[in-house]
Amino acid sequence: MFNPDDGSLFNLLIVRYAGGDRAPYIAQANEAARRLLGYSETELAGRPLSVIFAENSLSPWWEEAANQPDNLIDSRFEAEVISADHRRIPAWVSVLSWHERTARPADYILQIQPIKSSDDVFVMRRVVEQSASAMMITDRHGRIEYVNPKFTELTGYAAEELIGQNPNMLQSGHMPPALYQSLWDTLLATGQWQGEVRNKAKDGREYWVYESLSAIKNRAGDITHFLAVEEDITHRKAVESALSESEQRFRQMAELSGEWLWEQDPAGYYLYSSAAVEQILGFTQQQIIGKHYTELLTAQDKATQTGYSSNQHAFRALINHYRHRDGHLVLTESTGLPLFDDSGKLLKWRGVDRDITARLQFQNDLIESERRTRLIIESSLDAIVIMDADGIVTDWNRRAEKMFGWSAAEAMGRPLVQLIIPQRYHHAYHQGMRTFLNSGEGPILNRQTEQLAARRDGSEFPVELSVSPLKVGDSYIFSGFIHDISGRRAAEQQIRQAEVELAIAQNEIRIAQQIQSTLSPAAAIETDEFAIAGLCVPADKVGGDYYDYFFRNGSCLDIVIADVSGHSIGPALFMVETRSVLRVQRDESVTPAEALGILNRFLFNDLNNADYFITLFYMQVDLAGQHIRYANAGHPPPLLFNRPQNRFKELDADGLIVGIRQEVEFEEKSLPLAAGDVILFYTDGLAEAENPQREFFGLQRVKSVFQQNSHLPPGAIIEAISAALKQFCQRTRFNDDITLMVFKWR
């Protein structure tokens, strides 16, 4: 017979279960067990087993016993045993069915092994059993050997339903077979695998897990088991799916919308842009992604709107000034919303920009149009009057108060006919109201007409009237827009008068042009000795430049170029006087210096009173003596270029501008003419002409073009200089009169 006290070092109990209603009881305990529990031999014998075991501690044993009809049990479980002094001792309990010749079939041997707090196996078991992660252990062939409580909770299967099965019983059928093949290949090759898997629970519910698989090896390095740790990510996947669907709907709406929808990271860099950005700013979606929002703004907006992405506050109806890809200005109305996570951290910005360029342009054009109209007709806002079907005033705005002299309090509630309609039109008014109420038609409704209105003091004035009927229920109200056109009538009269005066002025200008056209030589002169030609381009319809050349006698040619300050009719008339004074001396032996002195004395008073002055260069060519004499009254010196010697000389002489002092001494110089001499006469408008970059054409360019074309006839030289000037200035009209004249000695 088995004797537990035969020197055994284990804590052993013999437990007997007689069946029926009686609970299992302790038949015998060895000395080691009695010491552990603090009982004497007689205190334990015959007592129920529940005396030393905590509640539910024996459940694993009894569940196994119920499933083993022959009581052949061999199991091990964790339990708490209670000592005589009521201490709870965690322990491993091993149960073994005891079948000896004298033993009864229902006798069991219980071995109690206390668990120390430092026991790694105990700690690991607790960790696994209480883990929030689902854990499963399989053998090397993939048969399930162990699952923790979280795994059974996740799958809905009991542990005994899973033990011995293959994990593929949990597959949902929605994962590609290649995934599982890759899983095993990776696990066997590296010893581990991680990934997301879609499984199916016992009740058919599908769930997602993030699974970490590890191969467990023995000391020889052979795989003995596999450990699977699973985190339930079903909720996260549902949230991600919902977010993905939301993002997809957002992007679909963004692509369909004509507005520019965008997303930015917390620093203000674009993460997403709808296709509408190309229509609004000319950039593609790909060109926008990664740009900072300030890169697209004008310089002014860059300085004022840099802080919007950093203040983390939503903004609405913000006006942005962008530069389109082609450079033109684009205005948008922008709304932005910051998106935060649960901790309050800014995730990104989401917003929309609406192109309002055309709308603002229209508004600005409308305002400008109204401003111009008001300046012309000295008008203001309309008077707005509303009355009911009985002709009683129900609304009367401030402009109506000013226009008619009745306050709103006085006007409302009174018949309109008594307030603004002259007495002689009362009958026609009443007749028109009756006609409309009976037929729905009226002679002045829904159209703009001009009428006479009466002020409070009885004075009458013309108005522009627009009346519209509006049906409200079974009745009508009438809205009237009344515009005082007294100022417009007066303005129209002024405009008609201005048109008459303008026609007269234009006729006078035509006369002045005709006069000025007769001042310049009719044609170029070409002889065996010389050739001369000229050109005058006025800045206005009538200019202040003048040139002339004429024979004083058979052997003398006089050449004149002049410039009167200013443009238009006044300077042109002074040119007429200048020409007259010079031409009248053609039959006299007058030198250039003498001619300038006579001209200065003759025009001094007229120029002084009119605040004008004249620069003038006068030259005489002695054809027989082959030399020139010249004098200058403050005019740009002509350029003499000798082609054989390739040399320039400026023809200048001392002399004050005409019209500054009454008595002036003019210096006179002379110079022999050589074969190939070419002289360019010009006014200051040539050298001072500007290009779009505000650069002067300058004397050096004049010389360069003159030198390059000096071999050509005078007319061709002038055309070359004129073409170079237009190309430089990029226009054909200039701010100042420009006159050119070329004399060429054979």
From TrEMBL:
Pfam families for this protein: PAS, PAS_9, SpoIIE
Key words of the record:
Coiled coil, Hydrolase
Domain spans labelled PAS: 21-47, 124-166, 246-302, 369-440
Database matches in SMART domains: PAC, PAS, PP2C_SIG
In terms of superkingdom, the source organism counts as Bacteria
Database matches in InterPro entries: Bact_Sigma-Reg, PAC, PAS, PAS-assoc_C, PAS-like_dom_sf, PAS_fold, PPM-type-like_dom_sf, PPM-type_phosphatase-like_dom
Coiled-coil boundaries: 488-515
Enumerate the spans annotated as PAC domain: 193-245, 315-368, 447-497
Please verify whether the record's keywords include Lipid metabolism. Answer: no
Q: Which PROSITE patterns match?
A: PAC, PAS
UniProt-recorded name of the protein: PAS domain S-box protein
What species is given as this protein's source? Methylomonas subterranea
